[in-house]
Amino acid sequence: MHAPADLVSTLRDRGLRMTPQRLAILSAIMHTPGHISPTALARRIQGEMPGVNPSTVYRTLALLEEIGVLAHAHLEGGAEYHRAEEAGHVHLTCSRCGAGDDLSLEEATRLQAMIEETHGFHADLTHFAISGVCETCWNSVDRTGPKPARTR
Ligand SMILES: [Zn+2]
Ligand SMILES: [Zn+2]
Ligand SMILES: [Zn+2]
Q: Global pTM?
């Protein structure tokens, strides 16, 4: 189990001791691609280090966010964390199957510009996911039902 050396020194610079729990949490996060929910992370840590209190995990997550290591976003199932440098995207989450997809900031620019033009509002589209229906769920909808009557 290890955490990147630069992170360990970042924490040390902030006067934070690298406890075994913090190390386990850091290492789990750094080895998780994409997002992880606080409860899923707590479960994983407890699998590795029985006896770790979930609240310790949640506090450490908040702390890591405070110093800029992590960032959270609100997805279909609640807040999830990813590494701050990977947080620059807009989340699309399917409200039926939970599948996620991402928009790059570049792709989101037009939407952002439209909101700004029409409302003068500077949207941070990365913080909350856009909820909807994914392509697979959309296509699996039964379209063989009665068709609307044609008028001609
Ligand atoms: Zn938030
Ligand atoms: Zn994300
Ligand atoms: Zn779906």
A: 0.78
